[in-house]
Design brief:
The chain has 334 residues and is mainly α. The protein contains 14 helices and 4 strands. 77% of the residues lie in helices and 3% in strands. It starts with a helix and ends in a 12-residue tail after the last helix. The relative contact order is 0.15.
């Protein structure tokens, strides 16, 4: 029963992390593109497009991190020392970005400073997330149920590559979100950017996918032996379809299609990572079952989560529904 509950919880944590990536990814992407706005009016429109939802998007980061601590304490105790630096930098960047959201509307003299904080917080948070992902994929050294690596093990050529990949991918999500939410010159500008960002994102997906199996021999076995080999054919095919839909939507001037296609690319990449990791929660050696809390703890936490997750999904969906449609450039953030 413990193993069954642990895998249920692994699915819940994975869902929370994926939801965070696709939701907070596009609003971080808006921040990454922020300096490219051609006027103060465009900057205000970009920020207003995510103003009602950005803080709610980060709820899933809290759920993912808190859930990991509660139900996979061993994994949490190993991941944190291994990734202290990128995680702390990410959290500080998110704090500065959140403060900038409030302060830039209350000042004239210091507005450029808070604009820089909004952009800097967005790009640093995205880059830190990418580095943490790359460090996790390349493996964490574990000995005696504790982290056995060094302070700088997270820093490598591969983790830096994944850092840049996440920045470009988030910028693509941000550009396609602005295509969905804006009109006129800003929308046309983002369509141009989205085309090239899509090329860059697909290039990074291909490069990281080629290099990932070389990070650990087990990745080869999972991808090229049944049932993993099914995904090794299916996932690239679906990526190709999503890429085609993305470019078709951009070329045809569609509003929603590019955004939905970009989101599907992230979901497929997440599935690919899951196939590489399974059944480990920390590659290359710590499994989901080994890292799980006792059966009683998993059951207790699951009761609250069954109530909490639908509640979060409900108010998130309601917020997106209330603020659907195009952003009015003349309305300010309050």
């Amino acid at each position: 029963m413990v193993i069954e509950l642990s895998f249920i919880w692994a699915g819940i944590i994975a869902f929370a992390v994926l939801t965070y990536v696709v939701l907070d990814g596009f609003d971080l992407g808006v921040g990454i593109l922020f300096p490219l706005a051609k006027s103060e009016r465009d900057k205000s429109t970009m920020m207003n497009s995510i103003a009602p939802i950005w803080d709610g998007n980060e709820t899933w980061l809290v759920l993912g991190g808190g859930g990991l601590f509660a139900v996979f304490p061993l994994a949490y105790a190993i991941i944190m020392p291994a990734l202290y630096m990128p995680i702390i930098v990410m959290l500080l960047a998110l704090i500065f970005r959140g403060v900038a959201f409030e302060y830039r509307w209350r000042t004239v003299r210091w507005k450029p400073v808070w604009d820089a904080a909004f952009f800097g917080g967005s790009i640093v948070a995205a880059f830190s997330q990418g580095i943490a992902l790359g460090a996790l994929v390349q493996g964490i050294e574990v000995a005696g149920r504790a982290y056995a690596g060094g302070w700088w093990d997270w820093l490598s050529v591969f983790s830096i590559l994944t850092g840049f990949a996440v920045v470009v991918g988030y910028a693509l999500l941000g550009a396609t979100w602005l295509i969905l939410k804006t009109e006129g010159g800003l929308q046309r500008q983002m369509m141009r950017y989205a085309w090239w960002l899509a090329v860059g994102t697909l290039g990074f997906i291909g490069l990281v996918s080629v290099l990932t199996p070389f990070q650990d021999p087990e990745y080869f076995g999972r991808w090229f032996n049944l049932p993993g080999s099914i995904f090794s054919v299916l996932v690239p095919g679906l990526v190709g379809i999503s890429a085609w839909r993305l470019f078709a939507g951009l070329n045809d001037g569609k509003d929603a299609q590019p955004f939905l296609s970009a989101l599907s690319l992230f979901v497929l990449c997440f599935v690919g990572i899951g196939v590489s990791f399974y059944p480990n929660i920390i590659p290359p050696s710590l499994t989901i079952a080994e890292a799980a809390a006792p059966d009683s703890s998993l059951k207790f936490a699951l009761v609250g989560t069954v109530v909490l997750v639908p509640l979060i999904l409900g108010y998130t969906a309601y917020a997106y529904w209330v603020f659907r449609g195009k952003v009015n450039p003349d309305e300010g953030y309050h």
